[in-house]
């Protein structure tokens, strides 16, 4: 399937052949073996040779990968023949060990083992033991072991491990059929595969299969098997957290006897068995010959695997993806020399078969599906989140943009102010800029302020080395950096009044506010002067009026009469006339001043309104900014010791004031908060508003209309700025 991948880790490897010589009581002197050279020699006298053996030759020599002498024990056989193949199965390599030889040569003893002694255990139980002991050691993988046991008798497959029936006869076992899929993979239908969780369970399965194994007694071997048996261990290995799975098969094969039918001297049923046995071995030989010729460069496109069930089952083991080892079992009996020579000759052909060995690693679709489902779940969650929170996200982004803009404006304003040299920052003067430089320079996301801070770093550091005179000697950008950092200082944020002062000083519109305040102050000064003039005029007029009254009393007492106000005197009092003229003059002056004062009042009211609007805006911006700073301070505190430390690369950096700019979102103005009273601006505005309201309520009249008593107006400039004096000179008089 498309998901499956195979990784080639090995080159072509020929099938290893081992010769095992069964011990007999009377070994033939014509069989010589050299376990060092792994060589065996058959000396066949001309007069004794018969049958198909070439009687023209007296000497036959065969070489093997290993010769297991009659005294070789089962453990040695296992170690030399099967251990490597079994270990390979744990690592994803298919493996096959098959025993070939005439009846009674020791195939079953080699593969399964002797029935009585523990030391006689054969390759199957030893492989089981090795695999489970290795599985226990290899904790990085999770292994799963399954087992099947197939018998092929007369070209029919039987499941030796069918647990559902009591076996009396071979026909009681379920028949196994071979099926081939579109990709030419072989499948055994009806062959049960059993999970073996441990060595004991696996050995029990072996025992069950052996019990069901067909035994057919022949005159030559009372307990010989007339069938092929394939014991298969399936190993599956998964590494934790990986989707790749290794799957391998280890076939341990005990073939039927390879003797010639002509020598069995049997009849009936036994003869039919011998015919089938030899037929399947004949096909095995045909497969081996084809593979041998192919390996020798001859054109053999077709290998007749399908001619028998046994060769079909062992297809991968013969010329396919498998580490295969053949054990050629012979006996050293003189009477069996021709069969032994025949077995050795067959082994020589097998040795020329080359297999392409690769580890079977496959991507496990079930694990991929599991992962993909998890990804889908996560994506759906994300989509849900995005859909549900789209508007909210948009709003947050807008708020973020606005707040970023505000921050940038603040810092640009600070830069401009510094460059113009107009502003003095009280805190900048009291704190060397270098104190905040590391924290600022470590915040690249700060935008314009970050850039300024970054530029400030070296000069600030230089200032620190030169004795902390950064506030006076550092360039403007450096001082701005320090100030910018002050804005971000946690301690400053904690002090609301201080935070407001810093914010206000950096506020871009503060210049306009200040300008308006100065203008207002000038207007107040002008109004105060006018008020003073009005008061003086009023004072003088009152004095002149008093003078006239006094003159009239004096003239009446003197009996001068005249053309005074009472009309009794025909003669005018020049003093009275002069006083009257002065009064007129003062009245004119008073009226002009008063008119001017009214205009000033209007201007002052306009300015106050502007300032009130600015104050409201300032307050709103401050609250928004402070809320943001406090939120980010809280959010940033969690990462200060971690990410900021690692970013800065030194523990010292983590001690610096952290950058509160974490997220600009979700900052809501703290409506219940009031701006700190220390600014003065708020006080002025509130006083002005109260006074204006009072003035409107009193519907104030011109000075001369209702009051005769003069009310002094404060001459303190600050008082003029801080208090709302308009009623004193506009209406109170
Ligand atoms: N190396 C050995 N050491 C001791 N006894 C052995 C050895 N090999 C075989 N035998 C004994 O020889 C007899 C025949 O061996 P075995 O049954 O294994 O032959 P076989 O090749 O399997 O015969 P068949 O093809 O008929 O099944 C058995 O009794 C077995 O125990």
TrEMBL record:
* Gene Ontology molecular function, alphabetical: ATP binding; microtubule binding; microtubule motor activity
Where in this chain does the entry annotate a coiled-coil region?
Answer: 510-554, 583-624
Keyword Coiled coil attributed? yes
Compositional bias ranges of the Polar residues kind:
696-714
Pfam name, any one: KIF9
Record key words, sorted: ATP-binding, Coiled coil, Microtubule, Motor protein, Nucleotide-binding
Q: GO cellular component annotations, sorted alphabetically?
A: microtubule
Positions of ATP binding: 101-108
Q: Where is this region: Disordered?
A: 421-479, 695-718
Low complexity bias: start-end ranges: 437-447, 455-474
Q: Which residues form the Kinesin motor domain?
A: 14-353
Which GO terms are recorded in the biological process aspect for this UniProt protein? microtubule-based movement
**PROSITE patterns attached to this UniProt entry:** KINESIN_MOTOR_1, KINESIN_MOTOR_2
Family, per the entry?
Belongs to the TRAFAC class myosin-kinesin ATPase superfamily. Kinesin family.
Please identify the protein, giving its name as recorded: Kinesin-like protein
- This protein's species is [Myrmecia] bisecta
Taxon lineage: Eukaryota, Viridiplantae, Chlorophyta, core chlorophytes, Trebouxiophyceae
């Amino acid at each position: 399937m498309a998901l499956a991948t195979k990784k080639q880790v090995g080159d072509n490897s020929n099938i290893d052949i081992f010769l095992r010589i069964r011990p007999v009581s009377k070994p033939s002197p014509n069989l010589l073996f050299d376990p060092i050279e792994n060589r065996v020699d058959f000396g066949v006298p001309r007069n004794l040779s018969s049958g198909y053996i070439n009687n023209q030759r007296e000497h036959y020599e065969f070489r093997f990968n290993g010769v297991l002498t009659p005294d070789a024990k089962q453990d040695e056989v296992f170690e030399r023949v099967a251990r490597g193949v079994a270990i390979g199965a744990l690592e994803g390599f298919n493996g096959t060990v098959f025993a070939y030889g005439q009846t009674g040569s020791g195939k079953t003893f080699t593969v399964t083992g002797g029935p009585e002694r523990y030391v006689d255990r054969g390759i199957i139980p030893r492989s089981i033991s090795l695999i489970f002991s290795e599985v226990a050691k290899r904790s990085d993988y999770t292994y799963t072991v399954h087992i099947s046991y197939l018998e092929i008798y007369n070209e029919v497959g039987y499941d030796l491990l069918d647990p559902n029936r009591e076996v009396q006869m071979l026909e009681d076992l379920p028949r196994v059929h071979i099926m081939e899929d579109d990709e030419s993979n072989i499948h055994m239908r009806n062959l049960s595969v059993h999970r073996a969780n441990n060595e004991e369970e696996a050995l029990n399965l072996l025992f069950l299969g052996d019990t069901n194994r067909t035994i057919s007694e022949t005159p030559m071997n009372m307990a010989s098997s007339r069938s092929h048996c394939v014991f298969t261990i399936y190993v599956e290995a998964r590494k934790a957290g990986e989707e790749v799975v290794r799957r391998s098969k280890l076939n341990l094969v005990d073939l039927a006897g390879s003797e010639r039918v002509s020598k069995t001297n049997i009849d009936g049923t036994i003869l039919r068995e011998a015919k089938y046995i030899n037929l399947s071995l004949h096909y095995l030989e045909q497969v081996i010959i084809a593979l041998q010729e192919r390996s020798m460069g001859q054109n053999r496109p077709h290998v007749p695997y399908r001619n028998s069930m046994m060769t079909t089952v062992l297809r991968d083991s013969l010329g396919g993806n498998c580490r295969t080892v053949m054990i050629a079992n012979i006996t050293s009996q003189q009477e069996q020399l021709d069969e032994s020579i025949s077995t050795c000759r067959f082994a020589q052909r097998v040795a020329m078969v080359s297999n392409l060995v690769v580890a079977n690693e496959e991507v496990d679709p079930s694990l991929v599906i599991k992962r993909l489902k998890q990804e889908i779940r996560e994506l759906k969650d994300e989509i849900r989140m995005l859909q549900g929170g789209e508007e909210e996200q948009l709003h947050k982004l807008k708020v973020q943009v606005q707040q970023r803009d505000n921050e940038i404006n603040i810092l640009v304003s600070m830069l401009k102010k510094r460059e113009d040299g107009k502003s003095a920052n009280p805190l900048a003067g009291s704190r060397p800029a270098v104190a905040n430089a590391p924290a600022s320079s470590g915040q690249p996301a700060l935008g314009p302020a970050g850039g300024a801070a970054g530029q400030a770093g070296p000069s600030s550091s230089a200032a620190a080395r030169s004795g902390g005179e950064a506030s006076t000697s550092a360039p403007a950008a450096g001082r701005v950096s320090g100030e910018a950092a002050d804005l971000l200082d946690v301690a400053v944020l904690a002090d609301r009044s201080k935070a407001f002062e810093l914010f206000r000083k950096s506020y871009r519109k503060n210049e306009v506010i200040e300008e308006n305040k100065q203008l207002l102050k000038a207007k107040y000064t002008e109004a105060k002067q006018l008020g003073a003039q009005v008061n003086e005029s009023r004072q003088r007029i009152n004095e002149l009026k008093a003078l006239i009254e006094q003159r009239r009393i004096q003239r009446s007492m003197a009996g001068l009469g005249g053309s005074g106000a009472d009309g009794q005197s025909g003669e005018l009092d020049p003093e009275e006339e002069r006083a009257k003229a002065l009064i007129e003059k003062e009245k004119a002056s008073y009226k002009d001043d008063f008119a001017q004062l009214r205009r000033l009042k209007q201007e002052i009211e306009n300015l106050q309104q502007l300032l009130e609007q600015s104050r409201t805006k300032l307050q709103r911006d401050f609250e928004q900014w402070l809320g943001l700073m406090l939120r980010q301070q809280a959010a940033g505190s969690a990462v200060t010791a971690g990410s900021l430390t690692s970013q800065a690369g030194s523990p010292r950096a983590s001690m610096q004031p952290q950058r509160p700019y974490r997220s600009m979102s979700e900052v809501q103005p703290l409506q219940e908060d009031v701006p700190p009273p220390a600014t003065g601006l708020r006080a002025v505005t509130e006083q002005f508003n109260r006074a204006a309201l009072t003035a409107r309520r009193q519907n104030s009249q011109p000075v001369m209309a209702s009051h005769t008593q003069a009310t002094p107006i404060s001459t303190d400039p600050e008082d003029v700025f801080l208090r709302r004096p308009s009623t004193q000179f506009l209406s109170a008089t």
